[in-house]
Amino acid sequence: MIPLVDFKAEYKEIRKDIDSAISRVLGSGWYILGGEVSAFEKKLAEYIGVKYALGVASGTDALTLAIKSLNLKPKDKILMPANCYPTAFGLALSGQPLALCDVDPKSLNVTLDTIEKSFTKDIKVILIVHLYGNPVEMDSIKKFARKNNAYLIEDCAQALGSIYKGKKVGSFGDISCFSFYPTKNLGAYGDGGAILTNNKEVFEKAKILRMYGEESRYQSVLLGHNSRLDEIQAAILLEKFKYLAKWKRQKKLIISLYKKLLKNLPLEILEENSEGDQFYHLFVVKTNKRDKLAQYLNMFGVTTGIHYPICVHLTKAFLGLGYKNGSFPVSEEAAKKVLSLPLYPQMTDDTVMHVASALKKFFSK
Predict the structure, then answer these.
(1) Where are the domains of the chain?
(2) What's residue 124's pLDDT?
(3) Whole-number Å distance between alpha carbons of 350 and 356
């Protein structure tokens, strides 16, 4: 079987570093909000190019706490892309109402045009997602947000290490949110997330919200959460930072081989931002025969994924938003066509060729 992501191969490559990191934490006897978390927060802020980073329990929590750290009124809305299913939950749990916009058919990312078409005066937060690691065109969107007095938040869950015009994604918005779910470019061996910002007030409020709303121990001034990145995950992430540049290069080589081998097949490969440098989280193609293709590949031992098979407004939990089938045609069409192929830095050329061979056999039939 060829997995979508090979955790065992990754651990085999970096086992000494990981075992040493875990041993270091266990030997310290300090497991929550200690030196490992502080060191990781500092490293992450420096890497992205912002002043402050705050480790939290998950990418979902990062979104929730980020929104709660802003000065919003109860009816102030958040605008987000309709095709980014997981993002909606973190935002909705903040208590703020959601509004949705469609995406560009070639990249499946939001653009200034798709944002403008759905923007209303009650929208006070524009949330963009660098989907699959592909950077969104930030300059025009940032200007639009400023012009309309709206906060700009970057969901970088899938894009740590991606670059737009020479700057890391996560350094453009008022706040950026990251996930360290195991499949991510920088993945923990469990859950984890982070909030990044240059705004000290936002950082301090998020820090209070992270732990029971406490300004000091047992002195709660806000109704806060229990959302902490633990010491073991922080130590693991610190060690894995050493490999990011290498893994980014390896993924690029794999994608290049994929594109060469799949060139003449009736598959649509998503368009990359020409002014960006993408750190691929997923390799996603589109096809009208998605479900049959996924079943066929499975027969050849090739694991695939769908990111994502349903849009936010068609999810039962969000039917109350008031949108209908057909409200966001590009997102809805993509949900029927997108297929994620295996992608991880340790993939060999032979493995990529096996996947490509299975694809060719399917389409030859």
Answers:
(1) 7-241, 244-364
(2) 98
(3) 10
Q: Encode pLDDT of 151-201 as tens digits.
A: 999 999 999 999 999 999 999 999 999 999 999 999 999 999 999 999 999
- Where would I find the H helices in the chain? 7-28, 35-48, 59-68, 85-92, 112-118, 138-147, 200-210, 231-240, 244-261, 290-299, 329-337, 349-364
Same fold, 7-241 and 244-364: no
pLDDT mean over 247-267: 97
- Has residue 365 got a pLDDT over 90? no
Whether 341 shows a pLDDT value over 90: the answer reads yes
Around Cβ 108, how many Cβ atoms within 10 Å? 24
Angle at CA of residue 152, ends 148 and 156, nearest 5°: 155
- Reply yes or no: is the peptide bond before residue 31 cis, omega within 30 of 0: no
What is the greatest pairwise CA distance in the chain?
A: 67
Q: Provide the residue type at 327 as one letter.
A: S
- Does the domain made of 7-241 have the CATH classification 2.60.40.1120? no
Residue-level pLDDT at 224: 97
Is pLDDT above 90 for 100? Answer: yes
Beta strand pairing status for 163-164 and 167-168?
A: antiparallel
Distances (CA, A) of 188 to 18, 242, 292: 11, 14, 33
Strand order in the sheet with 283-286: 268-269, 283-286, 338-341
Main-chain dihedrals φ then ψ at residue 184, nearest 5 degrees: -70, 170
Question: Does residue 229 contact residue 192 with C-beta atoms inside 8 Å?
Answer: yes
Q: 342: pLDDT confidence band, cut at 50, 70 and 90?
A: very high
The tokens of 202 are what?
């936002």
Distance CA 34, CA 297 (A): 45
288: number of Cβ within 10 Å: 12
Query: Is residue 4 classed exposed, middle or buried when 0-12, 13-18 and 19+ CB atoms within 10 A define those classes?
Result: middle
Band of pLDDT at residue 298, cut at 50, 70 and 90: very high
Report the CATH architecture of 244-364.
Answer: Alpha-Beta Complex (3.90)
